[in-house]
Amino acid sequence: MAAFRHDGDLTATDLFCGAGGSSTGLAEAGFRISLVMNHSRVSIATHLANHPEARHLCEDINAFDKRSLPRTRVLWGSPICTEIAPSGGRRRSRGQTVLSVTGEPVEQETFERTRATALDILAATEVHRYDAVMCENVIEFGTDWELFDWWLRGMEILGYNSQIVCASSAHLGGPDNPLAPQWRDRLYIVFTRKGIPLPDLDVRPDAVCPECGPVQARQVWRNPRRRRIGKWGIQYDYRCPSRSCGHLILEPLTRPVADIIDWDLPGRRVGDGRPDRRAFTPYAAATRARIEAGLRRYGAEPHVAILRRHATVVPTSGPVPAVSAQGRHHALVIPMGRKGAPRTTAEPMTTIATKPHHALVRSAPAVDDCTLRMFTTDELMLAQRFPAGYVVHGNQEERILQAGNAVSVNAARWIGERVAAALGQSC
Q1: Domain assignment of residue 22, yes or no
Q2: What is the mean pLDDT of residues 153-159?
């Protein structure tokens, strides 16, 4: 574990802290984490093991008196996104799911999605008037939540300017802030009190222009008349900043998932069937087809396959949405177009979720002789750019849930460094 540096004046509160991705990124950016809060005891145990200097509260944030929070310079909040995530099924659904894949018991509050929302950020800010407030969520938070504009207006009434950043975790980093080897499109909103300089939040990933050489690419939106909320390659591109090449569209440099794979861990021969059954059960035809597609595409090279598995679904409140980010994993493959296609280990992995669905395939001449294993929880945490040796509590279900729900550390650090620079200018 790396030692965190911090400026004693840069204090932070982290609501919805989860396993600590946001706190770790802020700590790397120089902030001192004063207090964190989450509804899950397992997540709080994980956070405490890695950030013992902070005060930890396991509370229903909705019901917590915001006046009891400490006065810190900044607030980070990653509101629960289950209801508006694309993987949550129907848009604006209020239903939640409890899923079990391995059959291990999971503490109820680990899965119970409280009604804590972005409104808690408004409530805390109204009381404490932080110098800056940073929020993270899925892209759909800004496009599908009916109260998003009202929420932004509420922060403006409280005296804040707002800046919206959309970026993938694969593109946010710096010289000593390694990229996450994961495609993970997220929406970040940074509020700064009026009178404080706006932080520089332009996303400029490193890229190589075929005509101009190494450059810092510019984020360019395809429809400049619309609000800048969307995903890379769909709503925006990265272009060369030089006019001489005509501002060519570039693909930013990324970090390969091979960097975080433990290559010494063995896999299981595909012909030997699924490892989680007492009796021999062959892999489904769709699973074998997915592996075969990887062999055709990558030959002898190892690759990452997206696998799905049936899961038990138990409603906890409201109508039950379609099962997705919570668990369609490891045996039944559901075609997903480009996102579900096999990928080389020389590129980032697709977005990790709260159940295992990324498998490492080591190639052989025939499908039966290939070996396959799911990514470990340690590897998933590294894919979120947590430091090596980060302690994660809970059973396998809970550990993977924490990894899938986490904020990518490099993204939180990228935001935090720029906010810290703006706060330094305001002193």
Answers
A1: yes
A2: 98
